[in-house]
Amino acid sequence: MTRVVILAEKPSQAKAYADAFQIKEKTKTYIELKPDSTFPEGATITWGIGHLVELKEPHDYKPEWKKWKLDQLPIVPDQFYEKVSSGKWEQFKVVKSLFQKADVIINGADVDREGSNIFYSILRLTGVKGKPVKRLWINSLEKDEVRKGFNQLQTNEKDLLLFDEAKARQISDWMVGINASRLFTVLLQKKGFSGYLSIGRVQSPTVYLIYQRQKEIENFVSEPFYQIEGLFQAEKGSYKGLAKIKEKDKAKVQALMDQHGLKEREDIHGTVQSVDKKTKHQKSPKLHSLSTLQSVANKRWKYSPSQVLKTMQKLYEKRLVTYPRTDCNYITDNEFSYLVKNLGRYQEAMNVSFTPASTRPSKRYVDSSKVQEHYAIIPTKTVPTQNKINGLSREEKNIYSEIMLNTLAMFHEDYVYEETTIMTDVKGLAFKSTGRTEVKRGWKELFPKPAKSNQDKDALLPEVKNGEEVGARVHIKESMTQPPKPYTEGQLINMMKTCGKLIENEEDVEILKEVEGLGTEATRSGIIETIKAQKYIEVKKNVVYVTEKGITLCEAIEGTLLSSPAMTAKWESYLKKIGNGQGSKQTFIKQTNQFIHKLIEETPASIEKVQVRDTGEGNKKKYNTPIAKCPACPTGSIVDRYKFYGCSAYKEGCKVSFPKKLAGKTLTQNMIKTLCEKKQTKVLKGFKGKKPFSTALKLDQEYKIKFDFEKKA
């Protein structure tokens, strides 16, 4: 008798596998399958609970490694070991017992490097050796796909390479995290820092990129620039145009006006020199990868990247969509053929109706050579009933319909518009006007119209003829240069993918392109959640800001490789080589060790320049310590009351209090002291309204803090 044991990553995945077969028995820790053509003698499905085992902590190796001390660094064990994760011992015992009895073991964890890591880390800790191991590799949890996958099991050669890649990643991240976090924290604490820093190979450069953008915005000085704008009145309507000049110096623009004998606001005539019309076709968007879906969902519904991934996971487990953690925008002919078969039913489910422009595969969407482990996110063969759709949560409905309509758009007609360029001559000076007219909505009719369109780009131009005389008025138009916009949470995914744009070294740019920036499709949303949980960034109304703690981190790592996306990309590039059998796990861990030694050597000097900030963490004793004499009463002092500043004589009736934050800016104890003693501060940067702004603060007669915009920097 051949005993087959399948390990799924989590219970929901195990249930989806079991649903494809006949169940003999269900328990809390495993499911028994009845014999059938796939498993002639039955099979047992068991599961991890996510990470059932984890790397040991420093103090598991040596008790003295528990304390955060500089003289203990570097912390690098001779050999790395796993242990059962807290609270998961019962499940581990069952998995171990089933592995011991098995004749064949199947890895049914997620089909990526972390799935390989989860399976082999568990197998290694059970001590079971020498048994044949097979790999289940599927992109959908539908019953026929699951059965097909179990009938076409793969060998574990690729899986073992992915395990080496994942283990190298896990061990090096452990080494960097443990050593760098302790190194920077202890050095900063010696300078009076009261909190703790968590430093990571990917999370730290990610925070640093957001910090760079924030600094760019704060340091941006808006400057005026000048253009010549014409307002034209034709027989069939009015339109605007710009002359080909854009200068910071207004005098140069005025000189051009004088040269052509033009005066502001004077009613004169112009002549239409040319009308150029071009019909343009826009194909439907590419099929979704996880990151493109995360970007669209954040733009449309303000969903965070992790919210999108969680929702996708639920839809995947409900067998409505294919594998979520994919970085691919293409499908193969196999998927295309089932999409064509179901086209009518998909339209019905989405309550849309159109005649397909073509049912032949286009290389824009269907290309087997571009599909490696996983293809793009598309609906599965399972077409849901209206009842099933109505039973989805609002997030699930939104995400599912986006995937479905994005897939249907591939079969729809192009969006067609006419782009018109009018050149108008006024006293020998040419003015250019551009606009577009929608000819056919095509695939765009599947999606809601965006709330705002780019007014100038989409301006509707009136019908004009070549040589037509038009009424004209010209003036010098003054505009201000605008700072870069802060990142939204959805843009962070794209920022992580394309951080190569911020790198100057060409070789580094190529590596960043090859590995697609920071993190992987599967880990980026988790990294964003980590840096939020660490309080390095905060998200308000979908806009991302770096906190005081985040600024401390960035100033501490500035100039080191920990702030460099290029370093992270080089590591990721080598990790990929390990997964392809061209690199070595041992080499990678050795290089990480060298990097940590260099960091320990160089960091003490670089920490000298860091200004220690009050991050609101650490010792609570600082609360109730006097900051300044109360400006309103003779006996009280202003003290830090944890969530606000207030007068110590509140029991005697003094009601003076100040907020900890004002318009998105943290008010420090020094600012409050200055306000109490001098009744006003200097001009401060970093306030946030519709746009970031700078202002001084003053105390009014009722001891309330007011903005003082009149005070000049």
Automatic annotation (TrEMBL):
Its EC number is 5.6.2.1. Keywords: DNA-binding, Isomerase, Magnesium, Metal-binding, Topoisomerase. PANTHER family: DNA TOPOISOMERASE 3-ALPHA, PROKARYOTIC DNA TOPOISOMERASE. SUPFAM superfamilies: Prokaryotic type I DNA topoisomerase. Belongs to the type IA topoisomerase family. CDD domains: TOP1Ac, TOPRIM_TopoIA_TopoIII. This is DNA topoisomerase. Residues 159-600 form the Topo IA-type catalytic domain. InterPro entries: Topo_IA, Topo_IA_2, Topo_IA_AS, Topo_IA_cen, Topo_IA_cen_sub1, Topo_IA_cen_sub2, Topo_IA_cen_sub3, Topo_IA_core_domain. NCBIfam families: PRK07726.1, topB. It catalyses: ATP-independent breakage of single-stranded DNA, followed by passage and rejoining. It comes from the Bacteria.
